[in-house]
């Protein structure tokens, strides 16, 4: 049986910009130090959580309280706080990747069986500016006795396309260097970004996303051939990698190779035809532009591709409502309600009552 305990989000999109200066590459922690517990934190863990030899379930519950309560670590989420475990303990801030690493490091010290997991693609919502973004996502799976829990502090703020898959701690740490590289890229520090990506790729050369990001850095630094080579490596590892296909099409256009550009755009279109997130974002763009007919078509396509996602049905209901199609809005909202639970289900019920009262 799997239950939800807390939540975490990992945003590796290249659009993320740093809110504070990042350390130079020479000062970045070595891989074996990224998840190392500092001695004061280890001592607190044993003194405040493990002192009376609690059961696995009690250890897990205490650990969750310890991480977030003011009397414990009082951790605060900051999107740009891409820290090592030791830095997070000192700053008491962490982004989602760092929250995951911190939990896993503490869980290991507490004798809990915990594993990092990754969802290949999620649709997320950035509350600060209301933007949608595509990314990947990490969380943790932990066993306490006979039960398994998912540790994921932003589960309600993301839409997963796939089920989470276990990954190695090595890949998790490679994501840390990739995140730092993305921040260096945003600062136009191309040598620093490439150095960090080289570290990520040394740790996990089989991850297509790192190669795609390396292609972006090399292309922006003027190394078009190096960028093309990196993108092609990403496609060799993941032939449906939309980022690499999109960037290769743009690179071919830049180089004047119209035939190759058309080939990549055709491959990209084939991938996007089966991508519910692409359909959803096309629908959002159309709705924002006032094209409700197209928005409804694209929302319906998203629903067809991922019919169990209640938020797709809800968005379709909103578009129907704007178009004056009340009965269709009620049908879609009824489906959203059936696919949801808890407070979300109750909120849908209130909206349905209001619509039916019209």
UniProtKB/TrEMBL annotation:
InterPro entries: O-mannosyl-transferase_TMTC, TPR-like_helical_dom_sf, TPR_rpt. It comes from the Bacteria. GO terms for biological process: endoplasmic reticulum unfolded protein response; protein O-linked glycosylation via mannose. GO terms for molecular function: mannosyltransferase activity. TPR repeats lie at residues 208-241. Residues 1-21 form the signal peptide. Transmembrane segments: none annotated. Keywords: Repeat, Signal, TPR repeat. Pfam families: TPR_16 (PF13432). The keyword Nucleotidyltransferase does not apply. This is Transglutaminase.
